[in-house]
């Protein structure tokens, strides 16, 4: 539906989003490790770290030698394994654009707890919907869905540059693309619950993120902020804002000169 590119939402409580950066680095590192492995070893990693509902609910057992971590830990480890570059890239772009502000609202350690709980909720929801499935669930989508839900509850009016249908860049209030995205997850779960994409994991992450942001955010951090923030204009070499012929500030795409 869309790819987030940039938001103009500055950090208020932290200087650097260390946990967001560390999560991205860890996901990339695990993907590189599985990519460099042989195909057989990569499959074993997916099975050993992925969340398998049939095993979690006692309908099957993992073959001897394939267990990498105890089964309860797979509610978390699955979220750090990805099947391919685009699977990884799509999740990490969402985390890069939206994770820093959610981390800012929660604090470093509470954001890490939030992220892991959303991942676990995604796995649990997926498992309840597919209790006998022996296919490993992998990917950070459950956790990322929680981040998206939290962001739209915190900053619905912040303008976000999104690439619509992979072609058209538009600055939109966050609630427009994010609520459409959230609605799509519920819709797809209703019409295609058994597809290759685990819509159940997405929905579980969304519900967990919406609930957890209520109790984990910093004291005094408001929900549904009312300020509309427009992406900064690209500035010229002198630091003055670029202006149009009528004297009004020209808003441009955020990836040119002067980008913060």
TrEMBL record:
- Main localization category: membrane
Q: Which residues cross the membrane?
A: 16-33, 40-63, 75-99, 111-129, 135-154, 161-182, 197-216
Superkingdom, taxonomy of origin: Bacteria
* Record GO biological process: proteolysis
Pfam families associated with the record:
Rhomboid
Q: Name one GO molecular function term.
A: serine-type endopeptidase activity
Q: Does the keyword Protease apply?
A: yes
Gene3D superfamilies from the entry? Rhomboid-like
A single GO CC term for this protein reads: membrane
Where would you find this protein in the cell? Membrane
Please indicate if the UniProt record lists Cell membrane as a keyword: no
Could you list this entry's UniProt keywords, alphabetically sorted.
Answer: Hydrolase, Membrane, Protease, Transmembrane, Transmembrane helix
Domain Peptidase S54 rhomboid residue range list: 73-218
Query: How does the UniProt record describe the way this protein sits in the membrane?
Result: Multi-pass membrane protein
Protein name in the entry? Rhomboid family intramembrane serine protease
Supply the source organism for this entry: Rhizobium lentis
């Amino acid at each position: 539906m869309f790819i987030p590119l940039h938001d103009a939402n500055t950090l208020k409580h932290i200087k650097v989003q260390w946990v967001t950066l560390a999560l991205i680095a860890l996901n990339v590192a695990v993907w590189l490790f599985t990519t460099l492995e042989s195909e057989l070893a990569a499959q074993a990693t997916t099975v050993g770290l992925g969340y398998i509902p049939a095993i979690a609910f006692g309908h099957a057992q993992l073959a001897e030698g394939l267990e990498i971590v105890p089964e309860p830990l797979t509610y978390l480890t699955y979220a750090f394994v990805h099947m391919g570059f685009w699977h990884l890239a799509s999740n990490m772009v969402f985390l890069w654009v939206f994770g820093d502000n959610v981390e800012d609202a929660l604090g470093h350690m509470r954001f890490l707890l939030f992220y892991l709980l959303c991942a676990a909720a995604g796995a649990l929801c997926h498992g309840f919907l597919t209790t006998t499935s022996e296919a490993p669930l992998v990917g950070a989508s459950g956790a990322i869905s929680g981040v998206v839900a939290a962001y739209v509850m915190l900053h619905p009016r912040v303008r976000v540059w999104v690439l619509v249908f992979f072609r058209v860049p538009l600055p939109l209030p966050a609630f427009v693309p994010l609520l459409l995205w959230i609605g799509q997850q519920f819709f797809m779960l209703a019409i295609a619950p058994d597809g290759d994409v685990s819509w159940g994991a997405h929905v579980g992450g969304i519900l967990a993120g919406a609930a957890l942001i209520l109790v984990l955010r910093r004291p005094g951090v408001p929900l549904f902020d009312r300020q509309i923030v427009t992406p900064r204009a690209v500035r010229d070499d002198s630091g003055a804002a670029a202006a149009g012929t009528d004297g009004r500030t020209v808003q441009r795409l955020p990836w040119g000169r002067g980008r913060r």
